[in-house]
Amino acid sequence: MQTNISYYQNKKxxxxxxxxxxxxxxxxxxxxxxxxxxxxxxxxxxQIRQYVNTQLNTAIRKxxxxxxxxxxxxxxxxxxxxxxxxxxxxKHEKDxxxxxxxxxxxxxxxxxxxxxxxxxxxxxxxxxxxxxxxAMEEKYSTDGGGDLLLIEELEDMSYNHNDYTLNHVFIxxxxxxxxxxxxxxxxxxxxxxxxxxxxxxxxxxxxxxxxLATNQELSLEEIAQIRNNTVDEVEQLLKDAKKALxxxxxxxxxxxx
Length: 257
Hints:
Strand content: under 5%
């Protein structure tokens, strides 16, 4: 089922729309009007679809399954069914948005193989030199190739909104000097590409928490609910992801000036 993408000024506006749609969906379900129900669900899929595309693309890069085995539409179609069959499980409309992500995560987990993680990358991330980082990114880009994106994504304008910035990685006041040093002659595209590459090599839990916190702008408490983790676990995963990104950016792009 190909979704038509609707645009919102920001994720808060989108979240409000999703939340406000919940009572209407409950009403349509009670009336047995599945056609209108699905039409309304179709309007709230943009961010979910982007999220699914990102997760599938990472799994394909890591070789968990072939490019043609699964498409975002497979997950979206199943999500429509899950929403219609289980929407009554959501007790309050304010919980609907997080429930959507939790349900989507569950569907993605069902098709993803157990990730094999080489902890050498994470443990040794402070030791890579700039030339090694450059070579790693070149391999990352080459291995991905121009045909990596799922065909449907080429026409899906919601894709590729992983607009990572240094502010996603460095947030403390005492890190401002580091940001200035790294940002001195660095293009935004360099930042986005580097962060995406490092995230690709981090364990899935770290990567997922970072993406939910930055791309989806969810709080630690909300991410914990989606992932069935404690808040402390989520906080540690986010700290570890940011620490890895900070070290990698500093070692690759900072100077001794």
